[in-house]
Amino acid sequence: MAVAVKSNDFSKGPVWRCIVDQGIPLMIAQLVHLLYNVVDRIYLGHLEEGDSLALTGVGLTFPIITLILAFTALFGNGGVPLFSMARGEGNTKKAGLILGNSFCLLAVTSVVLTVLGYVFKRPVLFAFGASEESYTYAAEYLNIYLAGTIFSVLTTGLNGYINAQGFPRIGMLSISLGAIVNIVLDPIFIFAFDMGVSGAALATVISQVVSAVWVLSFLFGERAIIPLKREYLCIQGEIVRGIVKLGTVNFIMQGTNFLVQAASNSTLQRFDGDLYVGIMTVTTSVREIFMLPVSGIVGGAQPVISFNYGAKEYKRVLKGIDFNTFTGTAYTLVAWLAVIAFPAFFFGIFNDKPEMLTAGVEMLKIYFFGFVFMALQFAGQTTFQALGDAKHAIFFSLLRKAIIVVPLTLILPYMGFGVAGVFMAEPISNIIGGTASYLTMRLTVYRRLKRETIN
Q1: CB neighbours of residue 13 within 10 Å
Q2: Nearest CA to 287 among 366, 171, 193?
């Protein structure tokens, strides 16, 4: 056990290597996870029957799925930085209690969300922009997907605790196993069994079960440095408040995505019907692909930064922030140029029907304008969260999505921009929100840490 602790000590070795060692497996896991999310859309986008309505219907479920992810992030990801800090302090019992409380909160929440999803499915989907035609596909997908909510919530919510213990490859396998199952089953269920949208949902649920079994078997097993023990499975007010306080950042980040998706779909439905809802589904799918590397790096950096902050290794914290900023900016600049140069290629991965491709290429270029500023948002946001600065992290999550994107999504189309206005809201928020978040981080916590290294 002592050897394991030493080998997972993030205060040793070059900071960039610690981040990369954590980030690369996480990046691979996210890539595979993304595949098992987008592979449904790729197959459904090329179905002949129903044209683009199957893809549009699945796109209409995104706000509901995102809301489930928001609660998962609230009680799961919210505890990971606190868990890492406790590990850095050497307080094993506290770390174990944080993990146990998080597990209980996730389990209870998943059951509640499943019930609410079935009860309010129809009115919510129509509020998010469904038509009578597209609702059929959306409801067909959700009827099966919601049954796997508990497995999805536990996998996503608890996997961060595996990475935070210095086992990023195990965390990678958590996602990869389920993703491989989904990728294999999708064409079988969708095409061979002719199940269409239902087949895509069923493959996803089965894959979530596989991932959940893997995560729980590791955390309850002997390999974990801080395992889930029976005495840790409880709900304690003080620990829950800490998880919720920091998890609110994650909740707002996902929750504002929910608001953006709902506002976008409903506005696009009013202007151009199902076609542009489908285009937005493709556009956000392309963005998810390009977000992977930078998301993997900042995800790998968070436990490293939190651990060193708990260990009072402030110089290493600064190096981690600088590494995040440089690699994220360089990558997002290259990604932006790639989309501008080859928009038809990336859009065509998901749907190559002429009516969608022609309009979709233009919307994709608008949506990705200023993508490089996302790196600044990530660098600032991750730093605030890793250091437990919930106030700033919450504010900048709200600023970019709730205060900028949602109002612009609702207003710009009526100011003469039409459907293009919906796609313009994202780059405007990236530029304003990303710059504000990063500059504030540099002028507050970064400057304070600089002073600590001098003293």
Answers
A1: 11
A2: 366
